[in-house]
Amino acid sequence: MRDSRSSRIILLAHCLLNQNSVVIGKARRKGVVEELLQLIMKEGIGIVQLPCPETYFYGLRRFWGVREQFDNPGFRNYCGKLAQEMKDLVTEYLRNDYEVLGVVGIKGSPSCGVSESGSSESWMGPPHEAKEYTKVGKKGIFMEELSKKLEGLVFEEWDWKDIQGSLERIKALIKA
After folding, report:
1. Under a CB-based contact definition with an 8 Å cutoff, are residues 9 and 153 in contact?
2. What pLDDT score was predicted for residue 110?
């Protein structure tokens, strides 16, 4: 390249750059996850913000959800379309000699979890009667669809229970 660009990009779950998109009561920052953004900015890496399928599909006035709610043909098909759009964008970057470092999801998210997602097991009924959800060792629905389209890319995740560990794993992804 003949200008200042690094030609390196990373794909981030939507809510890492916009906590205003998460379910009411679940935001952990006012807006962006600053420590992650600082790390990425320091390294001169461009950011592709993934779409938030939950916000687009269910809106901002949604209840918290679990994997079983989202694992239905309509939502999965919608996530597949979003994943295809991301594949097309990544393909264009790769075609032009950019380095795509990987994807960062959200640990435990029913949509964007990489190693685990929230599960209600077999429960269904009114939200006010919901039991506490558990975690299962499965990707969230959007990350499942995205990983089918972006084979070969590294998928990492942000863990709110281990912020320092998350930063270290993402730093390793960047340095790899």
Report:
1. no
2. 94
Percent of the chain with pLDDT over 90: 78
3 within some domain:
no
In the numeric block, which tokens belong to residue 145?
Answer: 């669809």
What is the number of structural domains in the chain?
1
What whole-number distance in Å separates Cα of residue 126 and Cα of residue 121? 15
Q: Taking all residues of the chain, what is their mean pLDDT, rounded to a whole number?
A: 93
Q: How far apart are CA 139 and CA 40, in angstroms?
A: 24
Token code pair at residue 162: 């281990």
Residues 53, 111: contact at Cβ < 8 Å? Answer: yes
> For residue 61, what are the domain limits?
8-175
Residue 1, in any domain of the structure: no
Burial (Cβ within 10 Å: 0-12, 13-18, ≥19) of residue 14: buried
- In this prediction the pTM is 0.93
Cα 42 from chain centre: 21
Q: How far apart are CA 84 and CA 150, in angstroms?
A: 9
